[in-house]
Each structure stands twice: as structure tokens, then as C-alpha cells.
């Protein structure tokens, strides 16, 4: 298993890859994501796919991923469809 970090201005997202990329058979990898589960929560499940490539990630501000904040920045608020009515 290899660990990678995708660095962006807002967050460093950490993800693990089990198997080859690109995949050996040309099929897309299986990507397992969850909230609030981090990549460690999928290790046992990923073991059921030994012949494929499995990608698991840690969510923003969870596990090994780090949400970055600048001084003076405010958290972003997302309005749901229900709150705009």
C-alpha cells in the first residue's frame, strides 16, 4: 500500500492506493470514501479485492488529512436547497 497527499490551497488530502496505478487490467480502481470514516476503516474491506486496485482516503479534517486556514479567513457556509426557500 502506498500513501499519497494531494496538496491544495485549502486542504492536504491523504489517500492510500493498494495495487497498481494505472490498474493492471485497465479497469478503473475501486474508490472507497466515507464520512467520518478515514482510510483505516476500509482496510479490511479493501482486502476482499486482492486482484484489483483500491483507493481509500481520509476526509478533510479527518485522519491524516489537514484542513488549512489562513489568518483572518472565515469558514465557508454552504446553503442547502431547503435553507434558500
Explain how this protein is built.
- Residues 52-85 are annotated as: Disordered.
- This protein is mainly β.
- It has one domain.
- Helix content is 5%, strand content 27%.
- It is built from 1 helix and 5 strands; from the N terminus they run E-E-E-H-E-E.
- Strands 1, 2, 3, 4 and 5 form a 5-stranded mixed sheet that branches.
- Strand 1 and strand 2 form a beta hairpin.
- The protein starts with a strand and ends in an 18-residue tail after the last strand.
- The mean pLDDT is 81.
Total tally of structural domains? 1
Give the class from helix and strand content and strand pairing.
mainly beta
> Which regions have little confidence, pLDDT < 50, spanning 5+ residues?
none
Look at the structure and give the mean pLDDT.
81
Radius of gyration: 16 Å
What's the number of helices? 1
Please give the largest β-sheet.
5 strands, mixed
Approximate helicity band:
under 10%
InterPro entries: AB_hydrolase_fold (IPR029058)
Region (Disordered): 52-85
Keywords:
5% helix, 85 residues, AB_hydrolase_fold, globular, mainly beta, 1 helix, single chain, five-stranded mixed sheet
List the helices and strands and how they pair.
Blueprint: E1 2-7, E2 11-18, E3 30-32, H1 43-46, E4 54-57, E5 66-67
Parallel strand pairs: 3-4
Antiparallel strand pairs: 1-2, 2-4, 2-5
